[in-house]
Write a structure and sequence with these properties.
Oligomer: single chain
Strand content: 5-15%
Distance between the termini: 55 Å
Helix content: 40-55%
Order of helices and strands: HEEEHHEEEEHHHHEEEEHHHHHH
Length: about 375
């Protein structure tokens, strides 16, 4: 069965480049990711057995170094396979597994300069698009914490930065300042309150990066996109099975992963909610994630890292807010928008979350203190 994508590349021709078991019998677009083009591919062996794979065309306009990205993915997943096997787990199910090309490469580059990769499909799993219960959030926290624990001994400095300065809040702040100063589209007056809010917190933007440079925080392997939908859950037990979407796995701080999860998952409102009265930090969800993350990490986090977990949540939320605001000022060229002022609305929700965290700061720190070992 031949499927063509938007560049008229025949999927069956791409599949033949990979070392699949059997011949292609079915393929179709899969999932709802916004970055890469993803297909579910089903092959049948001579014995009649079916095997499913995930085929992806990597977005090399966002990931400028797809070769380095795939080197990261291969090294990290192979390392995880060894750890999982040593723990008595199932490496074919509990981590992504790269399917190599027939020539032994981790990706295939076609005649249109597209980069393709393939993974084993993890059967009988599902993704959750949003937090449906505190238990879901807790399970996701244990999974991301366990991911951190399993990679605690991995030499993070050997990984490529797939998106340089991705969670460097100071760098993001400088880009924001530049956008305000240039005000190319004359939009700064529409976001005066938000600009003031961001500028008023300038003294905090380098807290984490300064501590990293001073050696007070350890450089770690971080996922950097710790949303609930980047975990595969068992379809029956609903327990977390496998962390996916490893494109942004690179050197970073554990506080980035914790903070981004709280930003995305512990908000009572949608990321683009226009009624800010609906937006605050859900303390029940914050506690569920904190408990699960620290359990998953075991004893791997340092006391300083644990102490700064609330700051990680605040800075990742603030950083996302200034990214939305910067994009609004520059003309909405990075984040997709669906209405006028969409990115400004998104910035406002993030800043409302930041303000609510500040209001509840003593409670957040008390929750972290409650669960630290």
């Amino acid at each position: 069965m031949s499927t063509e994508n938007k560049d008229c590349v025949k999927i069956d021709e791409i599949v033949t480049q990979f070392a699949t078991v059997g011949e292609l019998v079915e393929s179709h677009p899969y999932g709802n990711g916004h970055i890469n083009d993803t297909f579910l591919v089903v092959c049948k062996s001579q014995e009649g057995n079916l095997r499913s794979y995930i085929l992806q065309r990597m977005n090399h306009s966002i990931f400028k170094n797809p070769e380095g990205l795939m080197e990261n993915v291969v090294h990290v997943t192979e390392y995880l396979r060894n750890v999982i096997a040593a723990q008595g787990g199932d490496p074919d199910r509990e981590t992504l597994n790269v399917v190599r090309t027939k020539s032994g490469n981790s990706f295939y580059k076609d005649n249109h300069q597209n980069y393709w990769r393939m993974f084993l499909y993890v059967e009988h799993t599902l993704c959750l698009e949003k937090v449906e219960s505190a238990n879901d959030f807790y399970d996701s926290a244990v999974a991301f914490g366990n991911f951190q624990k399993m990679l605690a001994e991995y030499p993070a400095q050997q990984l490529y930065e797939t998106i340089p300065n991705f969670h460097n809040t100071q760098s993001r702040f400088q880009a924001f300042q530049k956008a305000v100063e240039e005000d190319k589209l004359g939009r700064a007056s529409l976001a005066a309150n938000e600009i003031d809010f961001a500028l008023a917190r300038q003294q905090e933007v380098s807290i984490l990066t300064d501590l990293l440079q001073e050696g007070q925080l350890p450089l770690r392997v971080t996922h950097n996109d710790t949303k609930l939908n980047n975990i595969l859950f068992d379809a029956d037990t609903k327990k977390a099975v496998c962390i996916i979407d490893l494109d942004t796995v690179m050197p970073g701080l554990a506080l980035y992963d914790f903070g981004d999860s709280i930003r995305f998952g512990a908000s009572t409102g949608a990321e683009d909610e226009t009624d800010l009265s609906k937006v605050e930090v859900d303390l029940t969800l914050f506690e569920a994630f904190t408990k699960g993350y620290l359990e998953g990490c075991g004893s791997r986090l340092t006391p300083k890292e644990i102490e700064l977990l609330p700051m990680g949540a605040k800075l990742m939320t603030y950083e996302c807010g200034i990214r939305f605001l910067t994009d609004f000022l520059e003309g909405d060229s990075y984040f997709k928008i669906h209405r006028e002022g969409h990115n400004l609305d998104r910035a406002r929700t993030q800043f409302k979350l930041v303000a609510d965290m500040e209001k509840k700061w003593d409670i957040l720190t008390a929750i972290v203190e409650k669960y630290k070992k």
